[in-house]
C-alpha cells in the first residue's frame, strides 16, 4: 500500500523501522564517544579520529528528535484504540515501569565500568580510601540514557491533562477540525523552518547550551532543560497531530529529498559553527550564538523529517527482519550502555584503527543484546511487558512415524 493510501488501521512499517533505527543507533552513538580526538567521555581510546566526532554529530542531530516524532504519532494511535484508561495503564507499565525496574541495574553496570576503567588507567591508588560518593537531588539525579523514558512519561501526562481540558472546554468537538487544518498548513517544504524558530530561540536563551550536542539530552535532573522540552516536545506534538492526518505522511515522504538536502547543508554548517567537537558552552547571547542556534535547529528538524519521509518511501513494506529488530530495539537500548562502556574499557589499549574497534564494540554489544533478547525476553513474560506481546517458541514439527518392520 502506498503511503498516501494508508488508513488508521494500517501498520506503519516504515515508522516502526525508524523508531527501531533511532534506538539501535544509540549503540553506535555511545560507542563512538571513546574515539573522539579529545577526551569528552570517561573512556578514552588510544586510537582516535575526527571521524568519530562527525559520526556522533550526524547521528545525534536527528536521532532522538525523530524518535519523539514517531512516539507522538504512536501515542495518538494508542489513545484512539484503547481510550484514556487503557492508554494510561499501558504507558505506566511499558514506559514508567522499565524506567523504575532497570535504572538501578543499569546504573550498577555503569559504575562497574567506571571502576574498571579507573583501575585500568592507574587512577586508583592501592590502599587509599575511596573518594566520597556523589550527592544527588532532583536537580542532578542521573537518569543515564534512560532519560527518554522519563521525558516520555512527562509528555504522556501532559497530553492527557491537555486533552482532558480541551474536551471539557470544547464539548462540540470543533477544535479538532481547526487543529487538523493547522497541521495541514504546517506540513510542506517550510516545515523545518517553522519548527526551528522556537527551538532556535530556546537554544539562544540557554546559557549552558553546547552547540556540538544540538538539542541537549536531559539525562540529569527530573526537570528537563527548556530547550530539550521545546525541541523534543515540538516533535512529539507534531507526531501526535499527524496521526489525525495520516494523509500528510505522503506529503512528508514526497518532500523528503528536499529535507535531506537542507539537513546536509545546515548540518555541515552547524558542525562548523559549533567548532567541531567543542564542549565549551555558548554562554553569551551573541549574534554568533543566534546564528549557530538557528542553523542547528533547522538541521535538527530537517534531518528528522528527512529520516521519516525516507523510511515511509522505502521501508513501508513488511519485513520479518525489520520487525524482529523493531521488537528487539527497546531491550537493546535499555541494556546497551553498560555493555558499551565495558567493551570500551576492554579494547582501549588494543592496537588497530578506530573504525575497526568501533565496529567491534558496536557489533559485539549488538550480539550480546540480541542473544539475550531472544533467550530471555522475546518468548517470555518480559516480551509481553516490554513489547506488548509474547512471541511463543516455534513448535517443533512432530516426527514422522516410521512403521515397524
UniProtKB/TrEMBL annotation:
Domain Acyltransferase, chain residue ranges per copy: 13-372
Keywords, alphabetical: Membrane, Transmembrane, Transmembrane helix
Claim: Signal is one of the keywords in the record: no
Name of one Pfam family that matches: Acyl_transf_3
InterPro entries: Acyl_transf_3_dom (IPR002656), Glucan_succinyl_AcylTrfase (IPR050623)
MF terms in GO: acyltransferase activity, transferring groups other than amino-acyl groups
Stretches that traverse the bilayer: 21-44, 50-74, 95-116, 147-169, 181-205, 225-243, 255-274, 294-316, 328-347, 359-377
Protein name: Acyltransferase 3 domain-containing protein
